[in-house]
Design goal:
Length: 172
């Protein structure tokens, strides 16, 4: 119960400090979500880490709301271990300009999360030190977790065709 009170107090504090950047707050299943403008996201995250002890980035992931505007969302789960408070922040991103600032300078562990989000959804993270594919081959066409990506892919991947043409070493 004490964590719930702390979380609600923190939410009110954030709404006062970042009134221009927080669009909405929501509580569901005892977890608070802050919907924030992408221009203010990094300011809020920096404050939460440096001033409020949210040293743990639990997760960062993308969501495709195909057919809606804006289409994409990046979700950040952060945690204050000492106070046992978790927060979720969501930032919506347009299909025309699917990018948001990197947070690798705040949490180095965001590196691979951002690369996965880029690889699977095509969301770019401005200022990322090494934004390239992490799961799919470099020459892969498209972003497989987008809802308009064909279930069977677009075509057979060039690398797989080459393997079939050359054959496997065991077959020789």
């Amino acid at each position: 119960m004490a964590q719930e009170v702390k979380t609600l107090e923190l939410t009110e504090e954030l709404k006062n400090l970042f009134a221009d950047d927080i669009l909405e707050t929501e509580e569901f299943c005892k977890q608070v979500t802050l919907y924030v403008k992408k221009e203010g996201l990094k300011r809020i995250l920096r404050y939460l880490k440096e001033e409020r002890g949210f040293y743990h980035l639990q997760d960062l992931c993308g969501v495709d709301y195909f057919g809606q505007t804006p289409r994409f969302c990046v979700v950040y789960h952060i945690y204050n271990i000492d106070e046992r408070i978790g927060l979720r922040l969501k930032v919506f991103i347009s299909e025309e300009s699917p990018e948001v600032d990197t947070i690798t300078d705040l949490w180095s562990g965001a590196n691979w999360h951002e690369r996965e989000c880029f690889d699977m959804f095509g969301i770019r993270f401005k200022g990322h030190p090494d934004l390239r594919r992490i799961l799919m081959p470099e020459d892969w066409d498209g972003h497989p977790l987008r809802k308009d990506y064909p279930l069977r892919g677009k075509e057979m991947w060039r690398g797989f065709r080459e393997i079939l043409e050359v054959g496997f070493e065991e077959d020789k």
